[in-house]
User: Which sequence fits this backbone?
């Protein structure tokens, strides 16, 4: 019998491999309580039984839990810095065959945006982007690459004309761009990280984690990057005391690895 939130967290870890202790508790508990109410069940115990027996309820929970909010070229000014300053720096430092990781990529907007920007510098067949997320359902949508008009509102016209095909009221990403991306399931809190990376993009995700969880992730990001590689974070995710993790500010929201952890 699951009587309280602590017991619920243990059950969820066993069931999903997601450790709710790593998320800010007040925020996450409020989201989960809202979801339980929406499903018309009485308590944590009844909800866990639903999760175990109803695939749709389980998938809804995972999707809700992982807070999938994404859009193409989110925060335009930061993408301009990436294109005009960060990528030229990376190419100068590491050459044109670079390895990029879009962590917690959600519906794929971010890795596809990265591929489009990179296409201005290098041929598409040389672009290698790993895109990961914890949510299988969301990854399936990302691989499909079909978006509504609102979703692609931030895409520059030249990219929209070149890399999207209109299908009814929707837009599909071209196969040429899709081939640049390898989508994989990945849990930032427990799975092994890619290595020898030139750039990690992880935006608007870490704000949901506790300070301890964030600290652990920053250490792993450091180890995953080449020396002098770049970490690109979200607008509300500046790294406090970044030198603790051997990062230094390169530009706002961009951190350069200065040494090993």
Assistant:
């Amino acid at each position: 019998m699951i009587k309280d939130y602590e017991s619920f967290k243990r059950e969820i870890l066993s069931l999903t491999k997601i450790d709710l202790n790593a998320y800010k508790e007040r925020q996450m508990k409020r989201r989960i309580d809202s979801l339980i109410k929406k499903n018309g069940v009485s308590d944590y115990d009844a909800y866990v039984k639903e999760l175990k027996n109803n695939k749709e309820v389980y998938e809804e929970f995972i999707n809700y839990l992982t807070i999938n909010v994404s859009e193409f070229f989110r925060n335009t000014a930061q993408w301009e810095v990436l294109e005009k300053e960060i990528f030229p720096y990376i190419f100068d430092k590491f050459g044109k065959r670079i390895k990029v990781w879009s962590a917690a990529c959600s519906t794929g907007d971010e890795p596809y945006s990265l591929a489009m920007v990179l296409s201005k510098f290098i041929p598409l067949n040389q672009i290698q982007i790993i895109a990961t997320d914890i949510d299988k359902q969301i990854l399936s949508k990302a691989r499909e690459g079909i978006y509504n008009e609102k979703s692609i509102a931030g895409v520059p016209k030249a990219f929209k004309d070149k890399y999207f095909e209109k299908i009814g009221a929707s837009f599909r990403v071209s196969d040429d761009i899709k081939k640049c991306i390898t989508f994989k399931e990945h849990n930032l809190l427990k799975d092994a990280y890619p290595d020898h990376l030139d750039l990690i993009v992880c935006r608007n995700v870490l704000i949901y984690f506790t300070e301890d969880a964030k600290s652990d992730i920053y250490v792993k990001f450091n180890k995953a990057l080449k020396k002098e590689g770049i970490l690109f974070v979200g607008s509300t995710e500046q790294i406090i005391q970044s030198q603790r993790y051997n990062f230094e500010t390169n530009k706002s929201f961009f951190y350069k690895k200065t040494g090993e952890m």
In short: The chain has ten helices and ten strands. The mean pLDDT is 93.
